[in-house]
Amino acid sequence: MARLLAEDDDLLVHLSWWEKAAARHRDVRVPSAAVRRVTVEPDWWRALRGVARGGVWIAGTLCIGERGHQGGKDFVVVRPGRPVVCVELWPGAPFSLLAVSVRDDPEVTARRLRRLAPRIDASTPWRQALPVPGETDPPEATTATRPGG
User: Fold this and answer.
1) Residue 50 CB coordination number (10 Å)
2) Residues 47 and 76 sit within 8 Å (Cβ to Cβ)
3) How many CA atoms lie within 13 A of 53 on its CB side?
4) Residue 6: which H helix or E strand, with range?
5) Where is the segment annotated Disordered (predicted)?
6) How far is CA 18 from CA 1, 23, 114, 128, in A?
7) How far is Cα 31 from Cα 89, in angstroms, rounded to an integer?
8) Is beta strand 51-58 parallel, antiparallel or unpaired with respect to 62-69?
9) Alpha carbon of 14 to those of 4, 17, 33, 89, 134: distances in Å?
10) Over the stretch 51-105, which tens digit does the pLDDT of each residue have?
């Protein structure tokens, strides 16, 4: 089962050999400075956003790999019936969210990861919603220029 580890100044999602094969991905490593918020989602299915872009998706059994959505992409290693530690990342990181089901106490894991991150956004204890296209796009010019006017 995947583990969330702190190594040097990085956060590491360490995958077992079969998880690497299923996800078609190596371990995921991000700098601890990229961690924006760490939350615990008790309902595993609420951690999943967007659509599958690679990996293995067995309904009610296992969700592992990349998921794409309008806000970017997430990397998930989620098992039903287990709480999920959700690590939101600042823009510019390779993923928007890392979602990992953990064996250990998820609250202890989340607290440990929060202490690791120097740039935690503590404005809210909840995971942020995905941006809505049209609401986050820059406004276009509403007036057209007319010749001579």
Assistant:
1) 18
2) yes
3) 15
4) strand 3-7
5) 124-149
6) 9, 8, 28, 31
7) 10
8) antiparallel
9) 6, 10, 18, 17, 37
10) 989 899 888 888 999 999 988 999 999 999 899 999 999 999 999 999 999 888 9
Q: Taking the CB of residue 56, how many other CB atoms lie within 10 A of it?
A: 16
Look up residue 22 and give its two tokens. Answer: 């299923």
Residues in the chain: 149
CA–CA dist 98, 82 (Å, integer): 15
Spatial distance between the Cα atoms of 105 and 29, rounded to a whole number of angstroms: 22
Whole-structure pTM over 0.90, yes or no?
no
pLDDT per residue as tens digits for the range 16-48? 898 888 888 998 999 999 999 999 999 888 899
- 8 A C-beta contact, residue 99 and residue 91: no
Only one residue has tokens 């809210």, namely: 124
